[in-house]
Amino acid sequence: MSYDKREEDVVTNLSNNAHIDDIVEQNLANPNRRRLMATGAGAAALSFMSLTGCGSSDSSSPAPVTPAPTPTTPPVGKVSALGFPAVSKSLADVVTVPPGYQASVLFRLGDPLNAATPDYRNDGTEPGASFEFRAGDHHDGMDYYGLSATGTRDANSSTRGLMCINHEALTPALLHANGVTLVSGVRTVPDECIKEMNAMGVAVVEIAKAANGTWSYVRNSSFNRRITTITDTILSGPAAGSSFMITKHSPNGTRTRGTANNCAHGTTPWGTYLACEENWAGYFRRVTAVDNPKRTAKELTSFARYGVAGNGREGWATATAADPNDTVFSRWNAERLGTSADGSDDFRNAPNTFGWNVEIDPYSPTSTPKKRTAMGRFAHEGAWVGKVTAGQPLVWYMGCDSRGEYIYKYVSNANWDPADATRGMAAGDKYLDDGKLYAARFNADGLGEWLELRFGVGNITSTNTTYAFANQADVLINARLAADAAGATKMDRPEWGAVDPFNGNVYITLTNNNSTLRSVALTDAANPRSYNDPRTNGTAQRGNPNGHIIRFAELNGSNTAVAFNWDIYLFGARAGTDPRTVNLSNLTAANDMSSPDGLWFGGNGILWIQTDDGAYTDVTNCMMLAAIPGQVRDGGPITVTNTDGTNTKAVTTYIGAASATTETNLRRFLVGPKEAEITGVTQTPDYRTMFVNIQHPGEDTAPNFTTRTYGSYWPDGGNARPRSATIVITRIDGGVIGV
Ligand code: FEO
Ligand code: CA
Ligand code: CA
Ligand code: CA
After folding, report:
1. Which residues have C-beta under 5 Å from ligand 4, the single-atom ion?
2. pLDDT tens-digit readout, 635-644
3. Would you give the end-to-end CA distance of the chain in angstroms?
4. Whose CA is nearest to atom 1 of ligand 1?
5. Which of 73, 141, 415, 541 is most buried by its number of CB atoms within 10 A?
């Protein structure tokens, strides 16, 4: 199969924005194995079982400067050295952690969230509605929100908390008794669709640590809730209520139904959660041959740029036979079906209500989620808050996860007032509904620029010939087109970000790119490699199949800076490949990896890196590594000579210090089970408990329900169907993780 496991990602960036090669040419010349298994199906409490086994690119650019350290106060001291032996690569169907560590399963697909919902049978026979009260599928981004003994918010609690977990997507076949029922392209069993629509979205679940040190989720907690693709949701900010948002569900354009494809996430200084909507476009049905003739030229440009075309990824829009007027299914049909001028009698505008960051208050179980439109609409991987300083604007860094897409930031207009830390969603109204949106341009001289996406600025105008923007709501809804117009840099699929708590450096994973969009000719300083990474069987994998991690430092350490210095911290590669063109970071058996995706800084300065890989899977399952990564510009320039045998191109880039990617400072900590992505990681505030998500074990192998043969049997073992799950990792001696 392709090294890119997420084929739902459709390349839609056909802009002429530089892959910055032109500018480049102008300016630059055995560890113990711990097998993770669950106790009996349906058990809420699971025990530990360890078994065997601003400048521009021209010469007037300001000189790069090193920003001053930020004045943040990390909660604990900075870790200076990693303290565990590297875990070996593995193809086993287990979770492996270092010796001295233990792992247990906390919260699996289907686990019930109240007493009234039965234990999960894991045989596909549960009714669809039951998933309103069960763990969803494809656990992804998550965060921990501390609770006091009396059930109030306590950011310092390391024994009781609420976990917010994204359920990004589905392995649909495993949710039903005999796979998906599809007759001539029609979903003829509507309840299967209801189950799938409920198995996505977000879970809020209380978790607690017992006196014996084991963690479990609290099945009867009044905080437990599911937000699904069906949940009524508020549209908030500048694009809410605009003509672009009018649907049959909300004729005044202020609400929509639910959230979808929540990949990574974000946090706020006031204790709420941001569930970010990533590659949502594919869920909508819009048969272009039927619908295109009914749409305006602007609508067609917008649909093309966001990839809204096709039959609908899961076919939910076809499940209307039982109730033709039902909005639960028909809301996935984005074709113009009604006769109204404004779209109030159909769901032609429904795609405009997806692609946002969704704020959820985990401490308020009855609160209604809000989509924060000021932060822009794209394939939001996540939103990572930068340094928080009283009296200064707040900033969130964001990636758009598709090949050739952009990195963004959002800066609040309001200055941070610590008194708002207890105001919940009201604080969100203040800081997330009013701000400035920017896209990043990475220049070949090592500087970058933040390009403001504002109606009337530069080419973002009503006279733009590609897309005539009408107003700021139009700019936010079509942020990709605005970033095209501004001249942002096409990246190798931006995934997670993380902000160093000690110096404010921002890291973004660029998971991989293919040979079309990252050909030798299209390499640039910030995406500098195009190479072949042959699999063990000789199959070629070209482009940038292993990905890299870019990082940047705002000029003067300011959230409001419009320029930054950048370099590349880490290049993914298999050990032993050419150190001049592929293995630029000199990775070894202790830390070689491919397709970085999840990324998270503990407050103690350890950077955790997770993979969602299809390129190195001939040798190893996906993994998580720990790192002490240094800082922006602690290395220097290097020149990479890319060749595909026909074309050759030398690219100069900036790489971090070589010492940061030696085994001393970068080491594999965990390897997951078969055909799983490792994504989502957080810790308790004392850094003694870690939570990690194992997403879609066994997803690549078609299940055989007769022989009960699956691509993985994790976590339940035997011949059980595999299940996505959150796991808990602790040190056997109770110490801080990773040191
Ligand atoms: Fe859902 Fe960007 O991975
Ligand atoms: Ca991801
Ligand atoms: Ca990914
Ligand atoms: Ca995945």
Report:
1. 677, 695
2. 999 999 999 9
3. 38
4. 263
5. 141
Statement: the pTM of the whole predicted model exceeds 0.70: yes
- Strand blocks (E) in 238-360: 255-257, 262-267, 273-277, 357-360
pLDDT for 48: 31
Reported as type and span, the H/E element at residue 665 is none
> If you measure from the C-alpha of residue 381 to the centroid of ligand 2, how many angstroms do you get, rounded to a whole number?
6
CA 401 to ligand 1 center in whole angstroms: 6
Nearest-CA residue for ligand 1 atom 3 is 263
State in Å: Cα 275 to ligand 1 middle. Answer: 12
For the CA of 264, the nearest atom of ligand 1? 1
Structure tokens at 187: 């979903």
> In degrees rounded to 5, what are phi and psi of residue 531?
-155, 175
Ligand 1 is surrounded, with C-beta below 6 A, by: 168, 263, 278, 381, 401, 495, 597
Given a contact cutoff of 8 angstroms between Cβ atoms, the answer to whether 511 and 472 are in contact is: no
Query: Nearest ligand to the C-alpha of residue 138?
Result: 4
pLDDT of residue 12: 85
Of 237-241, 317-321, 487-491, 499-503, the least confident:
317-321
Q: Give the ligand 1 atom nearest the CA of 381.
A: 2
Which ligand does the CA of 262 lie closest to?
A: 1
Rg (CA), the chain: 24
Please give the distance, rounded to the nearest whole angstrom, from the Cα atom of residue 508 to the centre of ligand 1: 13
Instruction: Tell me how far apart the alpha carbons of residues 201 and 204 are, in angstroms, rounded to a whole number.
Output: 10
| Burial environment of residue 647 by CB neighbours within 10 A (0 to 12, 13 to 18, 19 or more) | exposed
> Rounded to 5, what percent of the chain is helix, strand, coil?
15, 30, 55
Q: Record the tokens describing residue 368, joined without a space.
A: 């209604």
How many of the other CB atoms lie within 10 Å of CB of 388? 16
Cα 97-100-102 angle, rounded to 5 deg: 55
Residues with Cβ within 8 Å of residue 129, at least 6 apart in sequence:
194, 198
C-alpha of residue 511 to centroid of ligand 3, in Å: 6
CA distance 230 to 517: 36
Beta bridge partners of 371: 235, 358
